[in-house]
Amino acid sequence: MQDINTIITKNFNDNIEYLQNNHPELFIKLSEYDAAISNGHYIEKYELVYENDNFDVLEKSTQKYLYNKQTTHHTKEALKTLEYSTLNNCFEGFFRQSYTKEQVALYTKRRDASPLEFYASYVADILHETEKKETTQLQSLDKYIFFGVGLGLHISAMASDISAEVYLIVEDDLELFRLSLFCTNYKKLAQDAELFFSIFEDDTEFSKTSEQFLQKSHFYNHYIKYFQLLSHSDDKVNKFYIAISTQSDLKFLFHDYMKISISPLQRVAEGYSILLKECSFLNTTFQEKAFLLLASGPSLQNNISFLQKNRNNFIFVAVSSALEFLELHDIKPHIVVHLDPFDTSILSFEKLKDISFLDESLLCFAASSPKKLFEKFPKEQIFIYEAGSNYKADALNISAPCIGSLSYMLLLVLQVKNIYLLGLDLAVDSITGVDHTEIHQDTKKLALEDVFSKKETLSYKDDLFEIEGNIKERVYTTPHFYSSISIINRYFPKLKKEFQNVYNLSNGAKFNTATPLKPEEMTTLIPIPENSFSQIKELLLSYSEKKLKQTDKESLHKKFDYAKELTKTLQEHQIQNSDAKQYAQEINIIITRNKALYKYELARVLDSYLYYILNFIYNYFQNTNSTLHDFQTVDKLLKNNLLILISYYKDALEQVLQEEK
Fold first, then answer.
1. Of 519, 545, 571, which residue is a domain's last?
2. 577 and 509 in a common domain
3. pLDDT value of position 460
4. 48 and 194 together in one domain
5. How far is residue 506's CA from residue 523's CA, in Å, rounded to a whole number?
6. Please, are residues 167 and 194 in contact by the beta-carbon 8 Å criterion?
7. pLDDT at 362 exceeding the cut of 80
8. What is the tally of helices (H) and strands (E) in the chain?
9. Together in a domain, 358 and 444
10. SS3 string of 24-62?
C-alpha cells in the first residue's frame, strides 16, 4: 500500500500536468501564486494536515480546522444530499411555457401567413407534445456544479455516483484550491467528464466561464443540479442564476436572428452606403476632437446642463433611443446609431416632434434595421454596417447586446482617440430607481430594496443586485444590463488601442476600459468646427461602398448551396434508436459540421433554434419512458420546423441572387 506522501505527490503532479495542458489560465494563476509565496509577497493562511487517516485544513490565524477533524463525516454528509429532484438545488435553463392543442393550431396558421412574427410558431407543437409528461425526478445528472472545493474530497466521492459528463467547479479561494490538488485527482475525474473551473475569478471572468459551461452540450441545460459547501458564499450561486437567465440565445431568439440574416440582403440590393472595416477617424481633422456618446441611462438626464454648456465642444454620437430627450433640449447629434431590427424600435424616431431635427445628422443603421426606418430618410444620409451577418467581406461588422454598448464599440473600432461616455449607466439611478431617462419609451422605476440576494427567483429586467460603480462605490443593476456590462468588460479591452482615451462620465456601472470622470471635473475642450456634419459625411463616404464585390456574390452562392445540402441531409436522416444523447448530438452535428457556424448565417439561426428547443426535447426523452414512436413524432415536428426556416432563408437568398444576374 502506498504511503500518504506518495499519494499526495502523485495527485499534485497529475493535477499540475493536467491543468497546464488543459486549463492554462488557471495554471498561470497557480504559478503566480507560488511565485508570490517564494518572493515573500504573500503569506499562506492555511496548512494541510493529515491526522488519523484524514486530511484537514488548519487556518493558521485562528488555529481552527475547516472540517473540524471530521473530513470523512463531511464527505458522507455531502453524499447524503445527492438526489435527483428538480425541486432542490437546481437551476432551470429554460422558460416555462405551455400550449394547448388549439394554440398550436393557431400558431401553425400564423406561421404560414407571417413566418417570422411569432417564435411560438416553431416551438408550440414540440412543447405541447413534450409537456405531456412532467419531469420532477431526473434519470441522470448530465451537468453538475460544485460551489466550493475545500479539499475536493466530496467532489471525488459525489462524482463517482453522479457520473455527469460536464462539471463546473467553483472556488473563490486560490490557496484553498491549491491544497485540494494534493487530495483530489482532477486529472482522473477529467477522464470521464469535461471540467470547467472557476477559481479565484472576478465577475467578468466568472461570466465568461459560465457562458462556456452553458454552451457545452447545451441540450443538457434544462435542469442543472448543484452542491454548495456551507463555507462557500452565495455570491457565485447568485451570479450563475444571472448567467443562466441571460443566455444570449434565450433573450434574442432564432426568429430574430433570421430577420437580421435576411434584411441586410435587401439593403445591399437597394444601394445604401456600406461602411468598410478600414473606416477610421485616426489621422483626420477629428483626431484630437472629443466624441461624446449619449446613451439613454439616467445620467443623461441628470447632466443636461453640462450638455447644453458644452454643445459646441463635442462630436455628439447618440443612440436612437435618446433622440426624443435630445430634441426636447435641442441637443443635435452629429451621428445617430441604430441597431434593433424590430418595427417597434422606430418609435424613437416617430416620437420626434419634427423629423427635421435630424437633417444635419448622419445615420449609422444596422443593415438589419426595419425597412420602415430607411424609408423615413434620404438615402445619402444613411450609412449601414453589418451586425450578425457577413455578406460583404470588407464591411464594418460589429455586434453587442444593446445599442449603448454597440455604439461604444463603434467608437473604439473607428479609432476615435478621445471617447467620453454619458448615459451608458447600465444601472439604475441610486436615488430614484429609474433605469433610463424619464421619457424613454421603456423606462421602469425599480424598488431599490428589492435586491436579488433577498429573493428565490430572478426576473431578467426587474430584479436588482449590487456591482462596482463608476463614480459611486456600489450601484444596482439588472441581469438585462449586466449582460452588456460583461461584454464590455470581457471584450472591449482587446479593442481599445493604446492611443485611445475613454472617460466614463456616467454615474452607473464601472467599465474596465474607461477612466471614471465627473462631468464637472472636465478640462477645457477644443471647440468643434461648424461644418463638422459635412466633414464627417465626406470622411464616411470615403470609407464606404454601395455594391457587393464578385467574391461576395460567390459567397452568396455558397450560402445557398449550404441551405440546399442541409435540406437534403435533414430529409434523409433517420432515427436509429431511442438514445436521447445520440439524437441531440446528431441533430447538432448536421447543422454545425464543417465549421458552418463561422461561415453561414443560416447555421447560426438554426443553432439558435436548437439551443432554445433541444433541451426540452432531450429532457423529455431522457427522463420519461419514451418509445421509439415518441421519438419519431417529435423528430418529425422538429425537422419540419427546421425545413420551414431553411426554405424561408433560401427563398430570400434566391431572390437576391436573381437580382444580381
1. 545
2. no
3. 45
4. yes
5. 17
6. yes
7. yes
8. 25, 20
9. yes
10. HHHHHHHHHHHHHHHCCCCCCCEEEEEECCEEEEEECCC
Mean pLDDT, residues 598-602: 94
Q: Which of 403, 448, 421 is nearest to 507 (CA)?
A: 421
What is the Cα–Cα distance from 412 to 498, expressed in whole angstroms?
11
Phi first, then psi: give them for residue 131, nearest 5 degrees. Answer: -85, 0
Mean pLDDT across the chain, nearest whole number?
A: 90
Are 446 and 354 part of one and the same domain?
yes
Residue with cell 452542491: 227
Residues 538, 568 share a domain:
no
One-letter identity of residue 595 = K
Residue 333 inside a domain? The answer is: yes
Q: Same structural domain for residues 211 and 154?
A: yes
- Radius of gyration over alpha carbons of the chain, in Å? 27
Evaluate whether residue 112 is within a structural domain: no
The residue segments making up the domain with residue 160 are 4-80+143-216
- Exposed, middle or buried, 515 (CB in 10 Å: 0-12/13-18/19+)? exposed
- Categorize the per-residue pLDDT at 448 as very low, low, confident or very high, splitting at 50, 70 and 90: low
* Contact between residue 450 and residue 461 where contact means Cβ atoms under 8 Å apart: no
Instruction: Please tell me the total count of domains within the chain.
Output: 3
Residue type, 427: A
- Residue 466: pLDDT band with limits 50, 70, 90: confident
- Give SS3 for 467: strand
Residue type, 631: F
Q: What is the per-residue pLDDT across 197-215, written as a single tens digit (0 to 9) for each?
A: 999 999 889 999 999 999 9
> What DSSP state is assigned to residue 321?
G
- Say how far apart CA 427 and CA 575 lie, in whole Å: 49
Residues in the chain: 661
Domain assignment present for residue 114? The answer is no
Output the nine-digit C-alpha cell for 132.
Answer: 405531456
- Three-class secondary structure of residue 275 per DSSP: strand
Q: Is 116 inside a domain boundary?
A: no
Across residues 540-553, what is the average pLDDT? 94
Say if residue 295 is exposed, middle or buried (CB neighbours under 10 Å; 0-12, 13-18, 19+): buried
Q: Pick from 524, 545, 566: which residue ends a domain?
A: 545
Contact status, residue 387 vs residue 368, Cβ threshold 8 Å: yes
- Do 505 and 609 lie in a common domain? no
What is the per-residue pLDDT across 16-44, written as a single tens digit (0 to 9) for each?
999 999 999 999 999 999 999 988 888 99
Say how far residue 276 (Cα) sits from the centre of its chain.
Answer: 26
In the chain, the percentage of residues whose pLDDT exceeds 70 is 94
CA 161/CA 389 separation, integer angstroms: 45
555 and 524: one domain?
A: no
* 3-class DSSP assignment, residue 516: strand
Structural contact between residues 46 and 175, judged by C-beta atoms closer than 8 angstroms: yes
